[in-house]
Write a structure and sequence with these properties.
Blueprint lengths: L8 H20 L6 H15 L6 H8 L3 H13 L3 E6 L2 E9 L1 H21 L5 H13 L23 E7 L8 E7 L7 E11 L18 E9 L11 E5 L11 E5 L3 E3 L6 H5 L2 H14 L7 E5 L4 H13 L2 E6 L4 H6 L4 E4 L5 H4 L3 E6 L3 H6 L4 E9 L6 H4 L3 E4 L6 H12 L7 E6 L3 H7 L8 E5 L9
Parallel strand pairs: 10-11, 10-13, 11-12, 13-14, 14-15, 16-17
Antiparallel strand pairs: 1-2, 3-4, 5-6, 5-8, 5-17, 6-7, 7-9
Helix pairs in contact: 1-5, 2-3, 2-4, 2-5, 3-4, 8-9
Length: 469
Amino acid sequence: MPLHPNDSPGFLLWHATLRWQRGIAQALAPLDLTHVQFVLLACTWWLNEQGERPTQIALAAQAGTDIKMTSQVVRSVERKRLLEREIDAADTRARRLHVTKRGAELAVRAIAIVEQVDSEFFADVPERQALSFLRRSRSGRARRAEPDPAGAEMTRPGGEAEMMRAVRLRAPGGLDALALEQVEVPHVGPGEALVRVHAAAITRDELEWPLDRLPAIPSYELSGVVAAVAKDVSDLSAGDPVWGLMGFDRDGAAAEYAAVAASFLAPKPRTLGHVESAAVPLAGLTAWQGLFEHGRLREGERVLIHGAAGGVGQFATQLARWRGAHVVGTSSTAAAEEILALGAHQALDRSAVRFEDAIDRVDLVFDTVGGEVLARSAAILREGGRIVSVVGEPPPALLEKAEAIYFVVEPSRDQLLELARLVDDGAIRPLIDSVYPLVEARSAFERLTIPGKRGKVVLKIVDARCDGR
């Protein structure tokens, strides 16, 4: 017979974890820090106290967070002027993190507050025993960590017991760990909107992102209709058709409803349905930020886009042409016609020709491939040229030769508004590889691993008859 919930270690640990996290969230709220912001601020402060200036990758390793979450949250802490990036004296192209004076003061206060919550939570457990258990838990891969409860007044459609279908990654293991489940409709916290998800797009490696907070709902880009908003949200209303990119540090959109920061949502394009709209936010914003924010691409410059026919590359190609650049696109297969149709002036098959020998030098390399292709890209740069990668940190040897940067995309309402305008003007368009119903989510993720995919794979949550514009 199954254990009674009161006798089940997993059930009891679940409730204990939620109670502890609520306590932490409530204690940190007066400091205007979320739980994850606190962890990254405190880890940076501690490392600084040890004489270290961590990179984002080193900070992620120390905090136990994935790199995408770390990048996004670090930027939010920077905006609060609690962290700064400094140039590495040994390598002027590298950036390292340190806390500001205000950040150090706040970190010390926050650590004291959290330690008080911890001491109360573990009041009946010997300290040595508690530490031993937690250290063993940290070494495991399947630690449970739920999104930060906001503690504010919430609303749900249909009452407290409203349930929804959602795809969840139950444990590390990829496709085999995916399951379609009945879960509670998420609460709407302060500054959030509850979106009735019509469609959600998926990305190849995203099942690796939330391994420190399982079970987790995947997919971070969506299109749908606002179902409810928090009391402090004034620029969205129930019934508004929206699209957006969600934060990577919480449950995603492969579900019938998703709670999303209202500031991450924007009116979806008028000329696209929900399936096509869901295919734009992550790739479109990545291309925009890579080309224009990090790459500083200007009209008349030459840009080389590696992976120009891929999910991000297709938008980078279209946006670069719209900006007035001379666009050269590469692919690993014979996709020249596709790349030219997207607006490139020249297309190359990297498997058939060395791109360094086939094109004139460029001002910017936008890399979606990584590896050897990224490492060889410095040879094609003009003086003062830049390299931007969305795959991984540039190798040290490359940093010695060129200005190169790796970045993780961030949600942006203003940029979504610009992308929607460009879509409606016909300047850019998404490419859809395939569409799957929510019940076939495992097949959809499997499709991402098959060679020859062109464009985005999208989960359709609402029936086509309801997929209005």
